[in-house]
Amino acid sequence: MFDKTTWIRLPRNVLVGHGVLDQTVEAVSELHLHGRPLVVTSPTPREVAAERVAADFEAAGEDPAIVEIGEASFEAVQRVIEVAEEVDAGYLVGVGGGKAIDIAKMASDDLGTGFVSVPTAASHDGIVSGRGSVPEGDTRHSVAAEPPLAVVADTEILADAPWRLTTAGCADIISNYTAVKDWRLANRLQNVQYSEYSAALAEMTAEMLVGNADSIKQGLEESAWVVVKALVSSGVAMSIADSSRPASGAEHLFSHQLDRMVPDAALHGHQVGVGTIVAEYLHGGDWQGVRRALDTIGAPTTAADLGIDDETVVAALTAAHEIRDRYTILGNGMNQDAAIEAAETTGVI
Ligand SMILES: NC(=O)C1=CN([C@@H]2O[C@H](COP(=O)(O)OP(=O)(O)OC[C@H]3O[C@@H](n4cnc5c(N)ncnc54)[C@H](OP(=O)(O)O)[C@@H]3O)[C@@H](O)[C@H]2O)C=CC1
Ligand SMILES: O=C(CO)COP(=O)(O)O
Ligand SMILES: [Zn+2]
């Protein structure tokens, strides 16, 4: 008997463009959601966009509530769930970078409510994905979460955000190259479930971004447009796969390990980009091309660029495979000599 089932959950409304933040209430009203909106945000995005979104809901006769989070943790998810229950929220609106959006989507999943994604930075490809990424102790979970019913990405806000956030988003997309290679390897060696469509979309997204690298420049709103569309596309690849596999391989394990060792030292996307250079080298691929693309965009390519010392980068490489049970080119782990060799050859240290 044929027994395969695919259930792909995607947003219904995706608005990308100049000033679309003002259309958030309209985009939400089309979804037939009921009850109070709870806006989940963090300090800077609150000032940049969340207060405006809440004011627009208020003007439309809704009764919005706001909750501010500081970090991506299960405690923060629990706090949002408690606030949502207290205020009897009907649905959640995540306004911010990757952390606020991840927490809102995980809390929505638990509450069984709808979720709307309003990115204030083009810094990560979790904008659309139905996954949350949360550190806990020595590990980092990729958690199934509520995918957004709508996405409102205002390129005016994204272009106004610090440029380094946009270069981080570019690097998070470039990492799809090695993530997909790892996924194929895991499929062949470990029979990990694999989707050709999802992998092709993730690779094509990276390919298109690298093809446009010369035109991704600070101060151009067009650049925010190109990057956020790629981030959406990469998130769709994760939704098709029902896994972060198309966008997260060894380079992400390296970044997650750095987050453990030196929390908040550098942006997620920047760490992932440097990890991609090394992972591409380990795959025997065009690591120079990856480094060139990151360099053209202005994303870090070395430990020094990340502001992290060489020893920590080597230690993160040797311990990256321990982060979670995800088979990658790292196999059972790199020893110290191999990690030094790879990092030195690629110019990372
Ligand atoms: N679920 C998924 O599929 C994915 C999840 N992720 C996760 O997302 C996170 C990384 O996302 P990232 O956005 O880099 O991290 P953050 O959400 O921490 O945002 C980075 C910084 O940018 C600030 N910021 C956000 N918007 C603006 C703005 N418009 N102007 C000025 N500053 C702004 C934030 O402020 P403040 O400090 O006030 O928050 C924060 O300091 C990680 O936790 C990562 O694991 C990444 C990719 C995919
Ligand atoms: O960051 C991600 C994709 O860019 C996904 O994160 P995980 O590695 O936690 O799945
Ligand atoms: Zn990522």
From TrEMBL:
It comes from Halorussus aquaticus. It is an enzyme of class 1 (oxidoreductase). Its cofactor is Zn(2+). Substrate binds at D125, D172, H256. Zn(2+) binds at D172, H252, H268. It is found in: Cytoplasm. Pfam families: Fe-ADH_2 (PF13685). NAD(+) binds at G98, K99, A100, I101, D102, T120, A121, A122, S123, S129. This is Glycerol-1-phosphate dehydrogenase [NAD(P)+]. The keyword Manganese does not apply. Keywords: Cytoplasm, Lipid biosynthesis, Lipid metabolism, Metal-binding, NAD, NADP, Oxidoreductase, Phospholipid biosynthesis, Phospholipid metabolism, Zinc. GO terms for biological process: glycerophospholipid metabolic process; phospholipid biosynthetic process. It catalyses: sn-glycerol 1-phosphate + NADP(+) = dihydroxyacetone phosphate + NADPH + H(+); sn-glycerol 1-phosphate + NAD(+) = dihydroxyacetone phosphate + NADH + H(+). Its EC number is 1.1.1.261. InterPro entries: G1P_dehydrogenase_arc, G1PDH, Glycerol_DH. Belongs to the glycerol-1-phosphate dehydrogenase family. Pathway: Membrane lipid metabolism; glycerophospholipid metabolism. GO terms for molecular function: glycerol-1-phosphate dehydrogenase [NAD(P)+] activity; metal ion binding. Its main location: cytoplasm.
